[in-house]
Design a protein that fits this description.
The chain is mainly α and 143 residues long. Helix content is 44%, strand content 8%. A 3-stranded antiparallel β-sheet has the order 1-3-2. It is elongated and about 70 Å long.
């Protein structure tokens, strides 16, 4: 997929289908450049390209390992839910259910989001936080 939009699609951190790159604007609207480029795409070019790919060592290639580019990270950040943003941007160690929801409502008010109902909020954060005995803490991820 190719797009001019800053946020062309929803992308989640677990998504392995897309490699996200930014291209140069150096030849934007430069029809002469692209006409010249198109002329180089001959059958001889494709034969050389095919030969190159057929001799390329891909023994260590892992198709499940998607390149993590700066553009991919930007797109991931742009697609975060208000719940993920709240957890990432709010400094708390452990809160009970009521205090957590109150913090969330305050966050929404401060940043211009419409807060969800308490039930909806808790359903959306249950997999994003650790919960023990009604106390919510941020998950700790080891690297």
């Amino acid at each position: 997929m190719v797009s001019n939009n800053a946020v062309p699609m929803k992308l989640e951190s677990s998504d392995r289908r897309y490699v996200v790159v930014r291209t140069s604007e150096a030849h934007m609207q430069d029809t002469e450049y692209f006409d010249d480029l198109a002329e180089t795409l001959t059958s001889d070019f494709y034969n050389h390209l095919f030969s190159y790919f057929m001799t390329l060592d891909i023994s260590k290639f892992n198709p499940r390992q998607i390149p993590h580019t700066e553009e991919r990270q930007t797109l991931l950040e742009a697609n975060k839910s208000v719940y993920e943003l709240f957890i990432d941007e709010t400094n708390f160690e452990c809160l009970d259910e009521r205090s957590l929801y109150d913090e969330y409502k305050q966050y929404c008010q401060e940043y211009g989001y419409m807060p969800a109902s308490k039930r909806t909020f808790l359903a959306n954060v249950k997999n994003l936080l650790d919960v023990q005995n009604g106390v919510y803490t941020k998950k700790i991820f080891s690297e």
